[in-house]
Specification:
This protein is α/β, with parallel strands linked by helices. It is built from 8 helices and 15 strands.
Length: 241
């Protein structure tokens, strides 16, 4: 790294490695050609184009996604990661690039609701290390709560009747309902706002990359690129100011 007057200069970001999960459709998933796709991936590609950098993309299991960032496996996370105070103790975030509500999903004939009293005594599931998991643990202390490494495993246990309801980002749940496995189930109760938006995660020392990503997110919103990507996946805007 070049130095000037005894102060380290900012890194010259010509290449950026992007980490994502690849198991959280429609935000990030692996298609039939074994390629990463989804809203997060398209936003990352648009951001990289604005930053005029070459980007590569890495699939990483959710539970290890922050440790792999801090260990240097990649430089930024675009994986529908909510900005939380707990995570900000370990990594930094760009400005948020979307926000959506969470919701409960259960068997179509369950008769369940999203109110705590309606879910009393029920077994509830969520993906581990998510804001939805934290919400269940904080608000449903009397329930049996099961946490899973991936959203796909949560969905499977609901479809198999091993849990009574799952809690997930509403758009992810809605996407699952469109699949054969999701035909068993339906959204129950009301939308539940959880968290303060989703941002790109970076290492704490990479404040220059954080700021470049934030600026690029603002630019793709200003020139209409964001709206085109949004419309590809959703019938309404998920932008967060």
């Amino acid at each position: 790294m070049k130095r000037s007057s005894g102060v380290a200069s900012a890194k010259d970001w010509t290449t950026v490695r992007i980490g994502t999960e690849g198991a959280y459709a429609p935000f990030n998933f692996i298609d039939a050609n074994n390629e990463l796709q989804g809203f997060d991936v398209d936003i990352a590609k648009a951001v990289c184009e604005k930053m005029k950098v070459e980007c590569t993309y890495v699939a990483q299991d959710w539970d290890g996604i922050i440790p792999a960032l801090t260990a240097g496996k990649y430089d930024a996370i675009f994986a529908s990661m909510a900005v939380t105070d707990e995570r900000k103790q370990v990594i930094d975030f760009s400005r948020p690039y979307y926000n959506t509500p969470s919701a409960f999903f259960a068997a179509k004939d369950s008769g369940l609701d999203s109110k705590p009293e309606a879910l009393a005594g029920k077994t509830l599931g969520a993906q581990s290390s998510t804001i939805q998991a934290n919400y269940l643990e904080e608000n449903f202390k009397g329930n049996d709560i099961k946490l899973y490494p991936s959203q796909e495993e949560v969905n499977l246990d609901l479809a198999s009747g091993r849990i009574d309801a799952l809690f997930v980002d509403k758009l992810v749940g809605d996407e699952w309902l469109k699949t054969p496995d999701g035909a068993c189930c339906a959204l129950v109760g009301d939308n539940i706002p959880v968290g303060g938006g989703v941002g790109a995660g970076v290492r704490k020392e990479d404040t220059d990359l954080r700021d470049l990503i934030s600026k690029a997110i603002e630019e793709i919103k200003a020139d209409g690129t964001y709206e085109k990507i949004n419309a590809k996946y959703f019938p309404f805007s998920i932008w967060i100011d």
